[in-house]
Structure formats: C-alpha cells, structure tokens
C-alpha cells in the first residue's frame, strides 16, 4: 500500500455491517482512506443485540459448502479476492454438516478488531440522517434502514424504494434439549453428527401444525400487505400453505434415520450449533412472528423441546430494499449520482454472502473512482459476483424481488453434460470458468493495491 493517512483519497462508508465492513476493508487495501460511520451502540435496531460490527442478526449459517453450489462458488471467489468476511468466517467456523456456519460472536469480534485496527479506517460513531452531499459515499445501512436517511434515499432514487419483511429463528440452550427423544446426525451422513434432530410421528406433526396455524402472532404493522422473501418465510406462514408444506421444507425427514426406530421419521426438526462451545442451537428454518409465550408453548410440542430454554426468541422485522434495476448501475452506484454507491441487502441481494459480495464490489468500484483509475477490470456474468451485480442493475426486470446467488443468473456454459454426474460436472465447469476470471481480477486488484497503473 503506497498511500498514507495524510495523502490518501477518502471514501465515506455508512454502516458497519457485513457489506460496509467488506467495502471498508477493500478500500483500505487499495490505499483509500475510509470514514466508516456506524450508529451502534448509540442507537440500535430491533434486530441488533451486539455492539460489534458485522453482526449476524438471523442465522449463523453462511449456507452450502459443496463446490458445485452457486453460493459456494461466490464464497470461493471472495476468498480468492481477499475478502475480510470470508477470512473471519473460516476462522470462526463451527460444525454444520455440508454448510459453513460460524460462532457469531467470534466472527463479528474478529471483523471488528480488524476494522478498528486498520490505520486507513476512521470510525465515526453516530447516526447519519442523510446521504453526504460531497465526496464518494457507500450507503451500506442494511435492510433495516429507516427514518430520515430512508426518506433521503427515497428522494435520491426517485421514490425507488420498497420493503418486505424478514424473520429470525429462535435459539435454545443445548442442555435443555431432551436427548432421550432427539438424536445427532447430519442429513445423508454428511458432516457426522453436527445437527441435533427432533423426530416427529404423523400424529405429533399434525397436532403441532394445527396449533401453529392458530397460534397468536405478534402485531407487525402492515405485515399482511407486504412481500415476504421466500427464503425467510415465517414457519407459521409456511404451515398455513398446506398440511405437508413444512415436510417439504424445514421439517423434511429425507436423509435422516432415527436410531431408535431405524427408519426415517414422518417429520424432523434440525437444530444447528450456534456457538463454538456448543452451548446454543438454533431451530433451522423456524423464522417466526409468533408471540414469545406462543413460541415456547407451540414449539414445546416438538419432541425434545418440551422444556427448552430460549436464549433468543424468534423475531420479525421490516427489511427495506431499493428497486435497484431502476436506479443502480452494475457498479452498485446511482445512475443519476455516480458518486453514491449502495451495498448490502438494501440493494436487493439476499443473504449474508451476497451482501458481502455487493460490499466488495461497491468498495472496489468506489476505490477505483477515488484513485482516478480508468479501463478497470469488471467481472462478468461468468462469475457469481459479477452476475449478482448485473442482475440487480438489469433495467429489463420489471418485478424486482430479492435474489440469492444462483446459476440461473450466470452466463450459460457451452458443452453437453450427461449421465448421473452431468449436473455436477456442468456446475464444476461453471466454477472453473468463474475462478479463472477471478484470477485475472485478482491480478488487476493486486496491481492497484501496489500502486500500479495496469
């Protein structure tokens, strides 16, 4: 890094979540000074509990780890590009079968320490109520953006903002789970005994569903009028869609064998380790807006959770996001104000890693702007990170909803892939193609970070 605090160009980043921290880190690595503005702990949102940066407010899972999976490809792209978030995730990893899950406190503490100890990053405490009027800025305030800043964003984007609702699953103490009824295993034996499983008979499942669909819900303003992202649907909403809907979702028993019966149960809840010490487990897929006493009562009908101690009840909160195809470029910058960038879930990318990726690219492009670089390397839809940026900025999309990384928005790959391994072979070919392009992007980025002009 050739720049110093005295002569470095400066970019303001608003919000120290996953996207904001990732943006700040890549900017600093490029020799750009960062003013990182964060309102915690002076002001907290309903979903936040920790004073640390990059707090995981919902699940502690960063999802699948299989190489042929699109989200795994995105994670590997970020690793190879030098992502701080992926560095922290790999260091804070906890057992989770075929997924990458982390000890959430260790994860956020690591990121907070790295950011606070970076000499090119200045932390400014306090709430930002409007988009800064001068200089290059990245708005990474997350899906809970509200108040005056939200209104200013709406003005800046020409009334381009919408919102939907998101939910977090409950967490219970490990020693309160009745292991005489539950058993340890991972689906299809992948990952050993990483999950605790609560099997249900047909009678138990039907009784549980009947109580779930009639249980008293917390009053979340305008919930019934809003869009709910399918990946974060409340369990009670899922239950109301049909008797077997949950059995094809979070309660699917496929790939799990109850050692007490030697058979797959009729339905099965999985609990995933939430901390390194294995003292807390979250109810996988059980996002909810039930009132707290109702959560304890209804979820207590699940075998093994009769006397569960809740470390955190499930909560529901509003998520705001932009109509990005209308107002953002593939650099995550405003079409009408190129100096203003956005990153994270507010752009309509959905998921921790997708938010991280948007933060990386917003920081990368903002850094190139600050350094006056032209002829920059721009990742294409051959990569997962590039395909997300191109998707959220595609003006042909008329009905925009939050999107996870997936192969469907990446460029098709030539060749015919047949047989039992055809799909895996195809996805591995997609990954090989993407990582080859990422290697070229890394070469360019290294040149920028070292002060080169190529």
Strand content: 15-25%
Counted up, domains total 2
Specify the CATH homologous superfamily of the largest domain. FAD/NAD(P)-binding domain
Outline the low-pLDDT stretches: none
Determine the mean pLDDT. Answer: 89
CATH class of the largest domain: Alpha Beta
N-end to C-end Cα span: 16 Å
What's the quick description here?
This protein is α/β, with parallel strands linked by helices. 31% of the residues lie in helices and 17% in strands. The chain folds into 2 domains: 10-164 and 319-449, 3-Layer(bba) Sandwich (FAD/NAD(P)-binding domain), CATH 3.50.50.60; 170-313, Beta Barrel (Elongation Factor Tu (Ef-tu), domain 3), CATH 2.40.30.260.
